[in-house]
Amino acid sequence: MRSPDSSATAGGAGFEFRVLGPLEVRRDGEPVPFGSPLMRALLACLVLEPNQVVSVDRLVDNMWDGEPPTTARTIIQGYISRLRRTFGADGPVIATRSPGYALQVDSDRIDAHRARSLINNAHLLPADERSRALSEALALWRGPVLSDLEGSGLHQVVGPNLDELRLLAVEERVAADLELGRHQQLVLELPALVDANPLRERLTGQLMLAGYRAGHRAQAQARYHALRERLSDELGIDPGPQLRELYERLLRDDERLMDLEPGRSAPVVQRPVPAELPPAPSGFVGRSRELSALDRMLAERASGAAGPLTVLTGTAGVGKSALALTWSHRVLSEFPDGQLYASLRGFDPERAPLAPGEALTKLLKTLGVAGDSIPVEVDDRAALYRSLLAERRMLVLLDDARDSDQVRPLLPGSSASLVLVTSRRRLDGLVVGSGARVLPLETLPTETAIELLDRTGVPGKPAAEPAAAAELAELCDGLPLALRIAAARMAANPVRRVADLVGELTDERNRLQALDIDDANTSVRRAFDISYRSLHPLCADMFRLLGLVPGHTFTVHAVAALCGTDVSSARRRLRALGLAHLVGEPEPGRYGMHDLLRVYARNLLADPSEQEHGERCAALRRLLNYYLVAADHARRFLRPARDDLDFSADATVTRPEVHDRDDALEWFDAEWPNLVAAVRAANAEGLHELCWPLVRLQFNYLMVRCPWEDWIRIYTDGADSAGERDDPGGRLLMAAGLGVAHARSGSPEEALAHYEESYRIAALLDDPSALAMTRVNMGSVLYRLERYAEAQVHCQEALDAYRLLGDRYFEAGALNNLAQVEQVNGELESALAHLREAEAMYREADDLDTLAMVLNNCGEVSMELGLAEDGRRYHHEALDVALKCGSALRQAAAYLGLGDAACRRGDREVARTRWETALAIFDAEGSPRAAEVRERLRGTGAAGV
């Protein structure tokens, strides 16, 4: 029986993961068995995005094709717990990271990532090595991707992408074999591939070329006609220009079709072609997802499914130009008419942005137009530029664009050429007006960041200090510019340890200074300065104040309060900051900043003047007051607010859209890390009058979700603040709340110490209600300590006091706790009667969390009385109520009781299933009650669970 404590008012050595076929996990070469298709789908979701947080919402979408069950999140928690046990202490780690989970594992141990790496790197190799590497990648496919999960949402999302990757690898391997003169073998291999993929023009072209070289001229031409007819009949289109050109060369027996020189697949261009691309950066790592997206864009463009314009966008220093140049050099063969390059200087600290007219003049000269023949009017220059690029297959790289207007005149008129633009802004105008595709770049994950440190610094040093290297990567926030500077600093002093640089960067006040080097233009702070100085003054003010936000994410309502403005204005300014990539929107309505940008914003607030200090304090107070008002509003949908705190009258705050219990839980779940950070900031900044009330306002949520560590952490801060204020009411609430946390997390001795402290304060206050509340808590913990006689005294005195006060809500708590003592003393009829009274009172109060607990207690007592069917009914109702209020622990207790009921009627299989569900939830929640369930499972022959 449970009591209603109240308050008044990247590892995994030996493991391999395979998704290119049925999902398979191997440990030291041996298969590892896994459970249901749902559990396998969950694992596949994590495996496909190693070292990245996969949100619970995305897991739900991918695991259930259609309407997920109401217990979806609970099921996921249980499966995560099982996976962790299966992997063991030395296996891959599944880390809990808001808003989901991350599988920490070396991505080379995953066949899909190994295949992608082989395919992406193959272009750098000679033809024979390229063919071998691509064949090695293709050998990793064991059949259809995730064939054991067909029909799942996950399979529908990732299957086509990985199938496309395999076909691209096939085409590249065939291209390498054609360079090597293996056309006789390809004539035997390619017909089946073409028949299986009849609309892939490149495969058909490769078969045509192989057949021609093998002397099968008629069959080669017949393949072209077959494809043309299929395209016409099914899609109403003709073959693309590359295939048409190949066919025409076949018809005239172009002797160059027999040329086996690597990379040559088109007639030799006789005139000079532009080749303006700057060198690709050295030490480039990662970005496999982005490189694949660019490859897909190129393939789709060739088939007419995509436009000729792509924008790479992201914050300063994130590596947009590096990615653009790296990819551009990889695909040079796709653009036989040359490459144009222009630095548009959109965010150059020394020079003004390049005007479109100037850029056009430069590009026209590169295309061979004499200076005196360039038109005077910008529109005429643009027209001539479009004419010269018409039908030419050229790559145009426009680097560091400031806005859409700067780029628009530089776009070719036809789709034969491809334009790649980089910018710190999103350039939505190009999306709307020119059909651009936008590819946003985020910072690098830790594993890739460490690889960049190794390649650009002192090779081997990060591997010698892996923990320090990981911390350095995190301190650099995965920002490539910061990582390269850190690597340069290590290279400049090879004897210096990685840990020494970590120590220098740990202090936020010095971090940006430590990421400067002698080159004045190579500095993280300077890169941010340029973006910051281009902001509108109101947006610049908001950006600085965002440095005060204690948490890592924020909503428009919180920002409006922080800046002292209305929600609409805050949303407009956030959008402007988002366009400049100074804030991100990781999910709709929730914004955030990279850590280095946050440090930069805080440094902008470092003015020591009294006026600036006052403005900072006022802004932080506004933000904390918002959290007080919002939390007070939301908590009242979860349980009755049994205290005197009420912030509903504050009309200066626009509250979030919370209208019912589900909204309230969703708001608390999303804001929880921010609320914890806000409490800690309030205590650290000496805002004690705001700190402990903010802690108290979380109590109703804590009782539902029970995040033990956070609970104890913030209540400790709250106790400090109440002590600093010498506020007896606050001290009593904080001591009581700490007692509840320790009691529910399995530390009754510590709980007793805090409850005794609250009892002493209540006695000094001479407040009968507060004293009765502390007696309820004392009775609860003394029961857990098996001090039943003392517990009964406290429970009875609390019950008498609440009846005298007419407080039916806390009377219910006293009744429940008295019933648990009666239960252990064998007074079962009296215990059930008291529980039935408590049940009615909690229904009256609409306190679903505690009602679920009391219903579970009714079920326990009923079964002890031999009323097995009544017990089963109570536990079923408890489960329904717990699902409605979102309490995982109450759900687990209900599953435990339903298992007991099944066991009593002799249905041991059902009992084991119920207990396993309870165990998964208790384990996921870190509840000490998991031991009870394991004991039952051992009794049914499932001791290994």
TrEMBL record:
Residues 5-105 form the OmpR/PhoB-type domain. GO terms for molecular function: ADP binding; DNA binding. Residues 5-105 bind DNA. Residues 818-848 form a coiled coil. PROSITE patterns: OMPR_PHOB. Keywords: Coiled coil, DNA-binding, Transcription, Transcription regulation. GO terms for biological process: phosphorelay signal transduction system; regulation of DNA-templated transcription. Pfam families: BTAD, TPR_12, Trans_reg_C. Belongs to the AfsR/DnrI/RedD regulatory family. PANTHER family: TRANSCRIPTIONAL REGULATOR REDD, TRANSCRIPTIONAL REGULATOR REDD-RELATED. This is Tetratricopeptide repeat protein.
